[in-house]
Amino acid sequence: MMIEKPHAPSTERNSAPILDVLREHFSDRRQVLEIGSGTGQHAIHFARHLPHLHWQCSDRAENLPGISAWLAEKSLANTPPPLVFDVLESWPALRVDALFSANTLHIMPWPAVVRLFAGLPELMLPDAKLLIYGPFNYGGRYSSESNAAFDARLKESDPQQGLRDFEALDQLASAAGLRLIEDRAMPSNNRCLVWQNSRQPSL
Predict the structure, then answer these.
(1) pTM of the predicted structure, to 2 decimals
(2) Mean of the per-residue pLDDT values for the chain?
């Protein structure tokens, strides 16, 4: 049976500016784990333009058929089948030198965000980088009226959703042994946050 490919217009709009950041920070990386691949559109766009990267999609089980449909259609050599990854349940057994996630932290309930950062050392090789894209608050305040309206819509849909404070995320990252190396402004009041693993490998 044919699976209809999911489609997210926002993914098409933000792929180019995110790719610019990936080209800079992931130029020397080899294996990327994408956390919350959603439709799979980001994966095929980035994997096509960054053929040196082995781009591993992951998401909750119910989203894998749609991701697989995109991957099958494009049939890129560097996009293996997606993995099940539910932050509060099943974690993939692998270690990578790069992780990427877009527009996920405001969808996940806060306990899942906390669990994600706490578990990152299990996935990251020494010197690995984490790049997260999305809208964030700073100093407990919205950076734009559009972000405030977006946050209201999220919370109306699910009270556990909502824009996260950058400072709280950076605190979680620091506790996991990550140091912030860039906070870049992106179009439409979004940001790209880049952290790097600062933990030393076990002897």
Answers:
(1) 0.94
(2) 93
